[in-house]
Design brief:
mainly alpha, 6 helices, elongated
């Protein structure tokens, strides 16, 4: 039986709408967390905290090295306890701990800034360590790639739009 791209797309929206919305939300949470840690924080450190750009980027690199050292353990936690608890921990951690992390960063000392960045990074690594396995597993094989493509790109477009509108020309 031959199918069309339009028919497959209609099938995704008709039969897998709820899962597609969940995929969009998960990717959106990941994109927001990723943007704040990797893009916004170095700019915040240089523009608001008056760190040199090099200094802010070095703190980011140190944070990312720390996260690289523990991402395996996050994967193991995901295998042991399931993807959902690790994803929820990352999202709730980001939601609850963002304000305290920024308060630490505002302290200005190297240790406080690194601790604040690490708190935000730990939430990010919970998403990174599970997302690549969780997203494809949400959809049945027959629509997996199409559904994931649609969900990921819709979410990326929606989470990028406010940044584009708010940036100066």
């Amino acid at each position: 039986m031959e199918t069309t791209a339009r028919g497959d797309l209609a099938k995704i929206f008709r039969l897998h709408r709820r899962t597609l919305v969940l995929c969009i939300a998960l990717v959106g949470a990941y994109n927001i967390t990723d943007y704040i840690v990797l893009s916004y924080m170095p700019t915040y450190l240089s523009d608001e905290m008056h760190y040199s750009e090099t200094h802010g980027l070095l703190i980011l690199v140190a944070t990312m090295v720390a996260l690289m050292l523990i991402i395996d353990q996050v994967g193991r936690l995901s295998d042991r306890f399931g993807r959902k608890p690790v994803l929820v921990t990352g999202m709730l951690g980001f939601f609850v701990l963002s304000a305290p992390a920024f308060l630490l960063v505002r302290q200005g000392s190297l240790l406080a800034v690194f601790a604040g960045m690490l708190i935000l990074g730990l939430s990010l690594v919970c998403l990174l360590g599970t997302m690549s396995a969780a997203l494809p597993a949400m959809f049945p094989t027959s629509v997996r790639y199409g559904s994931l493509s649609v969900g990921y790109n819709l979410s990326a477009s929606c989470s990028a739009a406010p940044r584009l509108w708010s940036s100066p020309p």
